Amino acid sequence: MTLAILLSGQGGQHPAMFDLTADRPEAAAVFEAAKPLLGGRDPRDLAKSGEGLHGNSTGQVLCCVSALAGWSVIAAAKPGRAIVAGYSIGDLAAWGVAGRLDPATVLRLAAARAEAMDAASGEGFALAGIRGIGLQTLTDLAHSHDGHLAIRNAPDSFVVGGRRDALERLCREVTERGAQRAVVLPVATPSHTPLLATASTRFRDLLAEAEPHRPPPSAPRLLSGLDGAPVFDARAGLDKLARQISETIDWAACLEACGEYGADHVIELGPGHALATMAQAALPVARVHALDAFRTLDGVLDWIGRG
User: Fold this and answer.
1) Does residue 156 share a domain with residue 301?
2) Last residue within a domain, chosen from 141, 170, 188
3) Are residues 72 and 170 in the same domain?
4) Which pLDDT band holds residue 307 (cuts at 50, 70, 90)?
5) Tens of pLDDT along 117-161?
6) Is residue 82 a contact partner of residue 5, using CB atoms and an 8 Å limit?
7) Which residues form the Malonyl-CoA:ACP transacylase (MAT) domain (predicted)?
8) What pLDDT, on the 0 to 100 scale, is given for residue 77?
9) What does the pLDDT average to over 225-236?
């Protein structure tokens, strides 16, 4: 079995997001490390309360907690040959799964990343999801509305960032041109666009203080969430981690890289199942599941063990 581990971005947080890992002793240290970054609140209790789960300062930390907690249990099953890639904030969590950064450092950096992004974000910005139109056509239309391509999810599926009113006009125009879906998302941060250039600069300075580890031989191979390339040089990889805040993410390339690596099993760790859905389309011969889709962690471990 070759396992691709995909780590969720923001958007799927929900009150039951820690139900499978909450009582697992392997994950206890991850939950404990997150408390000081969440105002002293236990992430499990915070999630159950449903309060403020989607703000950057809380959501980015919770997404990393979810990914790292899930991996702490799966790692104990020794899944063998594996590759890991993360979507947006999941890109940072991937450094923890790959053994490049310890979990406490990942969570601390997640909080700092959110703070830098909030400081760089102005009022009136948003993201829009658009599907069913070609890349060049969309790029040209987005430019005409002062928008920026934020994420390439698939050859015909994209996220665009810009001012909310301009994105609403863009969505109407691409719909008239035959797009299957065009909707402004409930997001106020224009992530992965040049509008957050100052956040990339600030986060790069913080990453310069990090001390990446040499990964153990058994660790999953790390892919950059920016472009799907393997991360061999830690400093170059950390620079990409900073750049992806304000540059277009090519998630489609990450999925293509998983296929080239020979992934025949895919597991999404983190809240939701958006990445699993995309992986099913991009890797039709692979067996794909999201952790959120299982009723028990034993079911997850059995699935991996049978692989």
Assistant:
1) no
2) 188
3) no
4) low
5) 999 998 999 999 999 999 999 999 999 999 999 999 999 999 999
6) yes
7) 6-296
8) 78
9) 97
